[in-house]
Design brief:
The protein contains 11 helices and 12 strands. It is α/β, with parallel strands linked by helices. The protein has 2 domains: 145 residues, 3-Layer(aba) Sandwich (Rossmann fold), CATH 3.40.50; 135 residues, Response regulator (Rossmann fold, 3-Layer(aba) Sandwich). Helix 5 packs parallel to helix 6 and helix 9 packs across helix 11. Bound molecules: beta-D-fucofuranose (GYE).
Length: 325
Amino acid sequence: MLKKITTAASVIALCALTACGSGSGGAGNNGTNASGDTITMGFAQVGAESGWRTANTKSIQDEAKAAGIDLKFSDAQQKQENQIKAIRSYIQQKVKVIAFSPVVETGWDTVLLEAKRANIPVILTDRAIDSDDKSLYKTFLGSDFVEEGKKAGDWLVQNASGPTNVVELQGTTGAAPAIDRKKGFEEKIAAKPDIKIVASQTGDFTRSGGKQVMEAFLKSQPKIDVVYAHNDDMGLGAIEAIKAAGKVPGKDIKIITVDAVKDGMTALANGEINYIVECNPLLGKQLMELAKKVVKGEEVPPRVVTVEGTFTQEQAKAALPQRQY
Ligand code: GYE
């Protein structure tokens, strides 16, 4: 019940931000602030670790252009210290708004306090931070990763029969999606004690990481029934390892992933992946809308949840031709 209310509230929030109904007119609509200056946004991206991230970066760059916002973009190569450096340089450059996708959850208070003292509003996109001080950012736009993990767990509970050994390929250690996708999944599979996670390790959200960890699992684990990968790329790496070991992905070993990027959806449609939980990377448009509002000092909802679904093999076949990313 509570879940339904939250979802409905977030849909309203989404509509408010993306002008679902009539056009969103008003001053400052062309990427200018209240006094008519162009808005400069500093965006500190995580890296280019996955298909999801590539689509996310493109969405942010395209939508900044469309909104007339001057974007300063940096790629932290999955390192927190690089993101902190980028944020500090945006503060020095006196950008009007800072947005970033925190590579890990903790360790942001100092730099975000610096932004606050410089009166530069901060928007979290995609990933959340773990901090008691909610005044350090204006809003957090992104998915509910616990919910994604629960959807993956639900599918397995419904589709597993008898003792089921799962190996888990975790995302980047300390990252919100890795922590939450694990949590949601574990919560759901607890309903069936026959389902066991027999090994769990990080593959850092990359294809090569997923492949390497899966190779090691195939050597150390006598019986693997299911791979639960926290993103498509690691699942795709695992497919390579499974094939190299002479097994058939999707049949001998079932695969569940999260994201639903094109390569993942193709593998799902081909029968090599069994189920994908969607995570939408196209956050650019909503981010630019939020940025314009916070720069003008307008109220924004503290949390904007992305609406997303799930895909079976049949649904992937049907959806693939229209897939944008
Ligand atoms: O699932 C993964 C990427 O933070 C939601 O990061 C994002 C995750 C996404 O590397 O593919």
